[in-house]
Design a protein that fits this description.
Rossmann fold; about 30% helix; disordered N terminus; alpha/beta; 2 domains
């Protein structure tokens, strides 16, 4: 599956350029072993602060968060560690990039770290970028937790393997921010293969892996003796699947990472209401019709009800769509051209599932409704305890995330207490809304960093021509 969000530098640097490497770097680091004292996790009496026995799962307890986020291996990415002169050279011919001031050289690497999945320790990977100030200088920096869009469902699809994982790190770091870009559970970019499947659009699993990555990235500042001090402010930033991950991480942070000060959340083209989106995806055929199947396959695996999928997704001979789609997700990063052609919801879903859901009747499918509900930020049972300001960006002509559904979700989320600024890019497709609004994103973030009060809170405005509109 092609990525659903290509960030600014992925557009600017798509041709690829190694650039000059900063002279301030202190050599290569390829493998760092975690301290022996953290190798053994013991029961300290910690108990999970949220309910885990939901949607049919057996109750489990989290491993204490303080025992996780430990970096076990580091791999340098010198091809993306650029001097600011090299970055300026790459940007000079890009129209619309003049609002970006290139402030620092950058250093980029990736790391493996300890996290957990349903209370069982596992490892995940993340990309990391850090500003490199002139020799003899030190800077204080906030951190950006960059949450990527859909790249696929297996290790080979991890953004940390490509420029898609690295370029956002370059952009954030050159602005003077520490950047952490988790690949998520089930998408390992280097080292040992993943031991669990990717829990696509799962709130708990996504947030825990992302917050542990943040902790691991912050720990590298001291371990690598970098001339940067983390000022404890964190920005959440991501598009599409990553926009959903922004909501998930912000929701879970008070329970799992209360030590950080989350000052801003930028959610680009986010799918926040999976239940109503499912109904719309079944009423007519579109890209979201197939995406819905991928969401339910991966979430049903996580909730251990995959056996129920044959009642939802057809699996009749000769094409066996359930088996075909599941195999493609497990073996390729795109569905490609399969022999099974999907032209309507009837080609993919069972008649009973379509009839029930399109009539808002989930009878006989309450377990499916549960997993969609509990991973929708505006419906989940998890109580929100934070108050982070949000920028909520949509695309007027989005072919993947249903914009009318998300407009309604915006209002519902505001009624729940979220403080959000609304922006809808006129004429934009799914990816264009995120790319065309980059200038607005940076301007909004600048005000949050400078403690400027947010205006127009929870007001839905008509679509506007965003600054980067082509």
């Amino acid at each position: 599956m092609k990525s659903d969000f290509i960030f600014l530098l992925a557009i600017i640097l798509v041709a690829g350029c190694l650039g000059e490497r900063s002279e301030n770097f202190e050599g290569e680091l390829t493998d760092i072993k975690a301290p022996d004292s953290s190798d053994t996790i013991t029961d300290t009496g910690y108990r999970t602060p949220i309910e885990t026995a939901i949607c049919g799962l057996s109750k489990y307890e989290w491993i204490e968060p303080d025992k996780l986020g430990i970096v076990t291996r580091i791999e340098e990415l010198p091809e993306y560690s650029l001097s600011k002169e090299a970055i300026k050279s790459l940007l000079k011919d890009y129209a619309g990039a003049d609002f970006i001031e290139i402030k620092y050289d950058v250093r980029v690497l990736r790391f493996r770290y300890k996290t957990q999945n349903k209370g069982v320790e596992t490892e995940a990977t993340s990309t990391f970028g850090v500003p490199v100030p002139p020799e003899g200088e030190e800077i204080k920096s906030p951190a950006v937790l960059w949450l990527h869009g859909t790249t696929g469902f297996m290790d080979n699809c991890a953004p940390g393997r490509t420029e898609e994982g690295a370029y956002p790190m370059v952009l954030m770091a050159t602005q003077g921010m520490i950047a952490v870009g988790p690949d998520y559970i089930g998408l390992s970019s280097f080292g040992e293969p993943s031991t669990v499947k990717h829990p696509y659009l799962g709130i708990e699993a996504t947030a825990i892996a992302s917050l542990d990555a943040l902790k691991g990235g912050i720990s590298l500042i001291k371990r690598l003796k970098l001339p940067v001090t983390f000022d404890n402010r964190v920005i959440l930033w991501g598009g599409s699947q990553g926009g959903h991950a922004v909501f998930a991480s912000e929701l879970m942070a008070p329970y799992y990472a209360p030590q950080y000060n989350f000052i801003a959340a930028i959610a680009l083209i986010p799918p926040t209401n999976l239940i109503d989106a499912a109904r719309e995806a079944l009423l007519r055929f579109g890209n979201d019709t197939v995406t819905l199947a991928a969401v339910m396959i991966e979430l049903s695996r996580w909730y251990e009800i995959f056996n129920r999928m044959s009642y939802v997704i057809r699996n009749d001979e000769p094409s066996k769509p359930l088996d075909t789609l599941t195999n493609l997700m497990d073996t390729r990063c795109g569905t490609g051209d399969s022999q099974y052609k999907i032209d309507s919801p009837d080609d993919l879903y069972t008649e009973e599932f379509i009839e029930n859901v399109t009539n808002n009747n989930w009878k006989d499918f309450e377990d499916i409704k549960c997993i969609l509900r509990e991973n929708s930020p505006d419906f989940t049972y998890i109580k929100r305890k934070s108050d982070t300001p949000f920028l909520f960006v949509l695309s007027e002509n989005d072919e993947l995330v249903n914009t009318p559904v998300e407009r309604q979700s915006f209002t519902r989320l505001c009624n729940m207490g979220y403080k959000m600024k609304y922006l809808e890019c006129a004429g934009a497709s799914h990816t264009q809304g995120a790319a065309w609004s980059v200038k607005e994103q940076f301007e909004w973030l600048k005000d949050r960093l400078n403690n400027v009060g947010m205006t127009g809170v929870c007001q839905i405005n008509e679509p506007v021509r965003c600054s980067g509109t082509k």
